[in-house]
Amino acid sequence: MTDETIYRHMQDEGVSRRDFLKMCGLVVGAMGMTKMPPLDASGLPASLNKVDKSTLNHVAEAMETKPRIPVIWLEFQDCTGCSEALTRANAPTLSNLVLNTLTIEHHEALSAAAGFQVEEAKQQAMKKYAGQYVLVVEGSIPTGEFAAYCSVGGRSAEEILKEAAAGAAAVIAVGSCASYGGLPAADPNPTQAVGVMDLIKDKPVVNIPGCPAIPEATVGVITHFAIFGTLPELDELHRPKTFYGTTVHDRCLRRPFYEAGKFALSFDDEGAKQGWCLYKLGCKGPTTHNSCATIRWDSGLSFPIQSNHPCLGCSEPNFWDGGGFYQGQSTPLEKPTLGTVGAAGAAGLAIGAGMAAAAKAKKEK
Amino acid sequence: MDWNATLEFARGPFFNFALIFFIAGMLYRIANVVFLGWNKDFAKPRASKGNGVVKSYLRGGLILPFFPREKKAFVNNPITFLAGGLFHLSLFVIIFLGAAHMLAWKSLLGFGWWTLPLPIVDFMAAVGIISMVALIINRFNHPVLKRLSGPAEFVNWLLVFLPMLTGYMMTHHMFFEYKVLFSLHMLSIDVLLIWLPLSRISHFVFYFFSRTIHGVEWGKRGAMP
Amino acid sequence: MTDKTMDVFVKKTGGWAASQLEACTRCGLCAEACPYYLATGNPDYTPIWKVELLSRAYQQRFTLVGKVKTALGFNKPITDEEIKDWSMIDFNACSMCGKCAAVCPMGIEIPKLIGTVRAGVNAAGYAPEGLKSKAKAQDEFGSPNGDTVDAYKEWFASAKEKVGIDVPVDVKGAEILVVFTNLEISTKKSNLYDLAKILEAAGISWTTSLEARDAFNMGKIIGDGKLKKKLLMRIYNAAVELGVKKVLVTECGHGFVALRDDLPEVVGKALPFEVIHIAGLLPDLIAEGKIKVQAGKFANGKTYTFHDSCKIQRTGGYFEEPRDALKILVGESNLKDMASNREEGLCCGGGGGLRAIPEAKDNRMAAFKLKLHELEEVKADVVVSTCDNCQLQIKDGLNFYEVEDVEVKGLIEMVADALIV
User: Fold this and answer.
1) Nearest CA-CA distance, residue A242 and chain B, Å
2) Which of C236, C251, C284 is the last residue of a domain?
3) Distance CA C249, CA C270 (A)
4) ipTM score for this prediction
5) pLDDT tens for residues B101-141?
């Protein structure tokens, strides 16, 4: 582990004390921390464990004392959208923090080097920081006989992941693909793609689903681990509760229209122009756990529903196979065709009529 | 438990099967009765049968649950009248005028309609659930209902109650995750769909038989003023 | 014996019965209409429970679910013991009054289904002895009390002496054939004289028939199809032979319904004559001015109430006609309706053959108590009925409960009394 602390590193980079504290505030805000996580497991000095301190002070002190943590970022069957989103995050200082300050030792897309050089650098970093680094994964992993569909440097994604995960302190799956398999796993799942948690069972895995993942969430989780050495509180799908504790519907700015029963019925009707609820246009907000409605995108500019488009539910498992995007989520996924209904109905009628005829015959006997 | 897979199963193939089974089963039930043979009625009607049928539906459909003509029957068993009537009203409001249910109908039928605001539907759901609880308590206590009830009556109650309860919990995100409740809601509906043609809940079809017969019989006698 | 019962059930269950058996939701509201349940609180008397045997038979023989249930042992075969039990509730605690059908949310015609159960019970030989002996007597002599043709002849002839009218017997081409009941010949002979006066005053051509002398139909009451058909055909043949336009039933309730609604089914075609009841005819005659009555003849400060009989009013549909006539006779303000009236009218408690079953007396009197309560509610001095059976039951009941200040009258005698010739 590097000896220098995060603050020390930032000082070297020319960050002033004032900017450092501002950044600490952003971290607190991004992680939605109203109270500190338990410090015992974090390896932080016991002096921090004081109740009267604000969380901001905690974060600042942690950053001043805690050694910085290296990050290794792997990409498999992905579109680099999550990385792209991260570089356009709400708070430039924050992404800067993650991308530069926290030392991303290895990121294929962002790396200046290429080919064997970059592979070499990754192997070195893994060796150097064995057992300490955070492994971030973007994209799903093909498995079984289809493992070769995603290979880097002649080795399959599965192999690379398992190798990298072996030395990681924690694994963070960024985006729906890395979390649940994502679009590559959509029916019929031609590469038998799976998410990270399906392969890595012996390390703590955090899922930050979304297509792309909300960069603030990504940053928040990485920063949390970097600062406290622990993962934030997770739900049963390994999602940080801070960002995935409520549904889009819960915090939606159009929620009052839902309650009032005012719905847009097509994309160009008066209701759509008035900004009414998009539920009847297939919005999946009520079942989608994410912070789109609160954090929003592009520096808090907007999110799909605000931009007059129903939520697709992109951060939920299997959203890609969960029925039509513009059909309500209450609609059945499969429905009988007229043919099957006709055949089954005819069978029912025939049995009924047959039994009735038999009974009638018996009656008249 | 993999709730996503459960939900997909409950909304997908299981629902599909249940719906087909339901349609085939109900058609079987209807055919089984219709083709049993009907005696032709040669009796000269004293008054209009049509008038009787119209009045029969007006009385049975609209008035009876809340404003029983027979006041003594109401006084003796108000729970069945009130809770029964409210339950059916809430059922129709929820199934046909709740936005989520209308969308399900729309995807099945190809056309949709106007829906009620959530708070009203939600209130009706609560009314329906409370009514059902009142009805089951009544069924356990009332001597006549005890006499008439077999195991099937309690299964009927349970299978109708579960979708209502899970649906209500789901809209309020109570106790469990949304998709868990959604899965349970869909599963209970699927089971209900399969149970319907096997049980007396199918009275929603035979209601129209017996009400029409009642209207014809009483109408032709002139006993339906 | 159960085979015979099952045969009857299977034969009588068509779409009409099956669709209604399927419609029952077990809500139990029918019980709240049943005078016998209300009077005794015995849940076995719930109207739809009286049909349970038929319902079980239907499921066992006609439906897939029922067959599966039977195979699994949930639906047990009907036993002799059960048939005996159901005999107790279907005969001894049901007057087939049909109020349950008015209360049923599904509108199930429960009395007719009970009729089928009665037929099944009777086929097994478990009908009450009182009814069986009356049925046998009617099969043999033509009248349940054993009144023979000669008794009727004598009765018809006695009108000459009493009111000076030659009662026409078997006159071809008359407009109306009047069919009396054995209750009148045994307990209320005056009905003949009163009716003769009215019909003569109205100038209607009428006749009686020695063949069609009694509308009473034990076959219908006990559920014996053959006997019912035999008794109905007696009247049908006589009416056709005499070529009458109308058959007038005097006071018999079930006999009237059997003629009007069941006979067409028995002969399989529409009737060549109309079946009417004095509850409709007398008011019509008054309204059309064919007879003149003294308005307010009975307006003597007493309170009158009209008893709605199950067969004539609820089943027959004559709600307003007799009331209209009564309003003229007693004065509108003196006629008060009881709490349960018209199609919801409360049964007197003695219909459906109950008066012929000695063991049913407790039930009969318990049910009448409800009626008595309603009578007392309106402070009725006189209760008027168009049904002889109801009148007898009400008199029985009044005696039983030692109520002396209530009088029972028939509509015929009142009209005859008020007649202006």
Assistant:
1) 16
2) C284
3) 18
4) 0.88
5) 888 888 888 888 888 888 888 899 999 999 999 999 999 99
